[in-house]
């Protein structure tokens, strides 16, 4: 592990940002207009695949070069996640003071602490189901997915590094991880649906699918380039079909994740594997407007649900369509501001260790206050 050289990053793919846009817009659409986008919550599963793919590509490329550094890896995660998350947590803390009753505010404090320590999925698991009616009154409900993702990145780089250093079979590691996690998912879905929804061990297979794709595209680059050149359009169309089936047929009554989660995961894998030259990837997902939504997807994901939830709390019932639409528009505006003024400058322009340490301390203080 070399701490002196900087981590190398894969070539930028606009179509993956476009896929991010599809994922976040599905989630926003489901939360704001569930009657229109009934299966939109599968957007989170698309995010998991994208995240597993991109992060693993970075790990593989830097292990190959001998430039991988755990310190730099986690520094980049902190600069990527903490700035926007801190802003949203503090905004919820402030608005909750004026809009919530004492017991509601106490629960929000617990969720702020959980969000700051990336264990929201575990805390929510102990409370109630994701699709419970009371979910609308939890402004930080959506941070469950961030908890699973960060729990994955606490252990995954170390496991990959050890297997790489020992020259063990990475492919078998991925297959074993996918099979074990998916088996737990299928086993648990009819026994404890809430636990299966929130448990990291029943969700990790989705991120590992992205990692497996990254492993093959990195180590079998020539094969995948030929595959994309000859079958790219077929793969991307098949991927869109899988996503479409997931959106149409998956509902809040479905045993999810279970077998239903295969649709968005395979759909996302196929679209990424199709490459940049497939027509859908090139003409649709790489469209400037779509890519713009992909660039602000993380702050948009963070902002949209608190606004919708606080609207529910203030109205003491489901807010009207106009209020929900206003909340979505406002969340897009706040996401753009957060990306331009906070996330992007800190992520790409600030390189000092002091910034990273400050972000960690601020997150710790926020959690303690919560």
Kindly state the percentage of residues in helix: over 70%
Taking the sheet with the most strands, its summary is: none
Average predicted local confidence, pLDDT: 91
Low-pLDDT residue spans? 1-5
> How many DSSP-defined strands?
0
Structural class by SSE content: mainly alpha
Q: Quote the distance from N terminus to C terminus.
A: 36 Å
Counting DSSP H or I runs of 4 or more residues, the number of helices is: 16
Q: Element order, helices and strands?
A: HHHHHHHHHHHHHHHH
Compute the CA-based radius of gyration. 20 Å
Basic shape: globular
The percentage of residues in β strands lies in: under 5%
Tally of distinct domains: 1
Summarize the helices and strands and which ones pair or pack:
Layout: H1 14-32, H2 43-65, H3 70-99, H4 102-116, H5 120-127, H6 144-165, H7 170-189, H8 193-198, H9 204-219, H10 221-249, H11 262-273, H12 279-285, H13 288-295, H14 297-315, H15 321-348, H16 353-369
């Amino acid at each position: 592990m070399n701490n002196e050289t900087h981590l190398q990053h894969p070539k930028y793919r606009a179509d993956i940002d476009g896929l991010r846009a599809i994922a976040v817009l599905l989630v926003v659409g489901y939360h704001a207009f569930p009657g229109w986008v009934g299966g939109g919550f599968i957007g989170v599963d698309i995010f998991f695949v994208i995240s597993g793919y991109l992060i693993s590509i970075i790990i593989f490329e830097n292990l190959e070069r001998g430039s991988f550094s755990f310190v730099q890896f986690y520094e980049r995660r902190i600069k990527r996640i903490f700035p926007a998350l801190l802003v949203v947590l503090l905004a919820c803390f402030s608005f909750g003071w004026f809009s919530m009753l004492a017991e509601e505010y106490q629960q929000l404090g617990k969720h702020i602490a959980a969000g700051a320590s990336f264990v929201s999925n575990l805390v929510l698991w102990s409370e109630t189901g994701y699709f419970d009616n009371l979910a609308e009154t939890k402004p930080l409900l959506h941070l469950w997915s961030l908890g699973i993702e960060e729990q994955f990145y606490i252990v995954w780089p170390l496991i990959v590094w050890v297997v790489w250093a020992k020259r063990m079979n990475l492919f078998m590691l991925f297959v074993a991880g996918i099979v074990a996690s998916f088996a737990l998912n299928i086993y648990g879905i009819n026994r404890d649906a809430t636990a299966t929804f929130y448990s990291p061990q029943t969700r990790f297979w989705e991120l590992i699918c992205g990692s497996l794709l990254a492993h093959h595209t990195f180590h079998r680059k020539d094969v995948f380039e030929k595959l994309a050149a000859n079958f790219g359009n077929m793969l991307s169309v098949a991927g869109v079909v899988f996503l479409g089936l997931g959106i149409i047929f998956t509902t809040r009554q479905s045993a999810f994740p279970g077998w239903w989660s295969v649709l968005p995961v395979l759909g996302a894998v196929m679209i990424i594997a199709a490459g940049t030259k497939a027509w859908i990837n090139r003409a649709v997902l790489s469209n400037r407007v779509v890519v713009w939504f992909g660039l602000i997807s993380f702050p948009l994901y963070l902002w949209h649900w608190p606004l919708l939830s606080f609207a529910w709390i203030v109205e003491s019932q489901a807010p009207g369509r106009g209020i929900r639409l206003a909340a979505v528009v406002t969340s897009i505006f706040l996401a753009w501001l957060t990306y331009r003024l906070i996330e992007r400058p800190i992520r790409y322009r600030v390189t000092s260790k002091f910034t990273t340490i400050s972000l960690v301390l601020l997150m710790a203080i926020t959690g303690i206050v919560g």
